[in-house]
UniProtKB/TrEMBL annotation, chains A, B:
Residues 36-55 bind DNA. It comes from Actinomadura monticuli. InterPro entries: Homeodomain-like_sf, HTH-type_TetR-like_transc_reg, HTH_TetR, MT1864/Rv1816-like_C, Tet_transcr_reg_TetR-rel_C_sf. Keywords: DNA-binding, Transcription, Transcription regulation. Residues 13-73 form the HTH tetR-type domain. The keyword Transcription regulation applies. It comes from the Bacteria. PROSITE patterns: HTH_TETR_2 (PS50977). The keyword Transcription regulation applies. This is TetR/AcrR family transcriptional regulator. It holds the Pfam family TetR_N.
Length: 189, 189
DNA sequence: CGCTGTAGATATACGCCGTATATTAACCAC
DNA sequence: GTGGTTAATATACGGCGTATATCTACAGCG
C-alpha cells in the first residue's frame, strides 16, 4: 500500500461538489469571513492550490456557494393555490437567509445567469402566470418579487431589523398582504 | 522650519472627517476592494496605524462609510405632496447606490443605530404619517419601504438586473405603483 | 526659559490571505 | 515498461489587518 492517506498525489479524489460542501459547512459554522482557500482546503485535508482546478479562484468558490444557496430553496408544488406557493417560497427564502446570513448578501451581487438561478426565476414566473398575471407584467413583477423577498430576508438575517420578532413578523405580513393584492389587481386587468 | 511636510510627527492634523472623505473617494474611484487601511493612509500621506485613532479599526472605517452614504441622500421637502417626496427619495437612493455599488450592500448588514440612520428613518415615517397612514402601520411600512428601495437599488447597481435599462425602469415603475396604491389603501382605512 | 507629560504620529513585525509558478506522483493507453 | 496526462503538492510573493513599541512636537507649568 503506497498511498496511506485517502488521496495520494495524482489520485483523482476531489470534486467540485465536495469542495462546495466543505465551503458551505465552513460558512455555516464560522461565518463568511472564515471562508478562505486555506480554510476550505484544511477542512478537506488538502492543499489550497488543489481547489483551483474545481472552482477557478476565490470568486468562483463564492459563485458556487450562491448556486448552492439557491438549490436549498424548497421545491415548488404547482398543484397548490398560487397564494400558498408564494407563501412557501417566502418562508423558504427566509430560512435560507437565516442559515447563511452573510453568504446571502452575495445574491445581490450576481446576475441571474447560472442554471439554478434560471430555474428559480422560471418558478416564480410560472407562479405569476398561473395567478393570471398578463404576460408583459410577469418579468418585471418577478424581479420585484425576488427583490422584496431577498431584501427582507437579508435585512432580517443580518440584523438590520433590530426590533423583536413580532415586529419583524409584521413587516413580512405587510409585504405578503401588499403583494397578494397587487398580483390580484394585475390579474384582474 | 523643522516641519517641512504638512504634518510632522506629533502634530494634530488628521481628523475623522478627513479619513472618511479619503475613504469615500477611494471607494468611488477604485471600488470597495481597494479600500484598505494602507490604501486610505497612502492617500492621506500618512501611516496606516494613524487611522486607528479615528476609526477604531477596519470595521469602524466601513461603518463610517455607511454613515456617509446615508447623508448623501437628498433632503426631504415636507412642503411637497407625499407622492413626490416618495419618488424623490427613491431616486436619491438609486443614485447613491449607483455611485457606490459595493459599499451600498453594507447597508443591509448594519442595524439602524447611528444618528444619521435614525434621521433617515424618521423622514420616511413622517412622510407616511403625512400621507395619512395610521400610526400602528407606520413603523412596519417604513421598514418595508426601506427594504424595497434598498433592495432595488442594490440589485440594479450590482448588476443583478442584467437586462436593458428600459426593463429595469419597468421594475421601478411597478414598485412605485404598488407602493403608492398600498399607502393610499392604508391611509383610507 | 527649561522641564515634563501626553497626544498623535511612525516603525516594525506577525500571521493570514489569494494565487503564480514549478514540481512531483499516480494513473492511462500503448 | 514507457510516455503523456492529470491531480495533487511545494514554495514563494506581495498585500492585508493590526498589536506593540517607539518617537516627537507641542501644552502646561515653574
Amino acid at each position: 500500500m503506497k498511498t496511506p492517506a485517502r488521496r495520494g498525489r495524482g489520485t483523482r479524489g476531489l470534486s467540485r461538489d465536495e469542495v462546495l460542501d466543505a465551503t458551505l459547512d465552513l460558512a455555516e459554522e464560522r461565518g463568511l469571513d472564515a471562508v478562505s482557500m486555506r480554510g476550505v482546503a484544511d477542512r478537506l485535508g488538502v492543499t489550497p492550490m488543489a481547489l483551483y482546478r474545481y472552482v477557478g479562484d476565490k470568486q468562483g468558490l463564492l459563485d458556487g456557494l450562491v448556486e448552492r444557496l439557491i438549490t436549498e430553496l424548497p421545491d415548488d408544488d404547482p398543484g397548490l393555490p398560487w397564494q400558498d406557493r408564494l407563501r412557501a417560497l417566502g418562508a423558504g427564502i427566509r430560512e435560507v437567509a437565516r442559515r447563511h446570513p452573510q453568504v446571502f448578501l452575495l445574491l445581490f451581487m450576481r446576475p441571474t445567469v447560472t442554471e439554478e438561478a434560471r430555474r428559480a426565476r422560471d418558478t416564480v414566473q410560472a407562479l405569476l402566470r398561473s395567478a393570471g398575471v398578463p404576460e408583459d407584467v410577469v418579468p418585471p413583477l418577478q424581479r420585484l418579487l425576488d427583490t422584496i423577498g431577498m431584501g427582507l430576508a437579508a435585512s432580517e438575517a443580518n440584523g438590520r431589523f433590530s426590533g423583536d420578532a413580532a415586529d419583524v413578523d409584521r413587516v413580512y405580513d405587510l409585504a405578503e398582504d401588499l403583494l397578494l393584492t397587487a398580483i390580484e389587481r394585475y390579474a384582474r386587468e
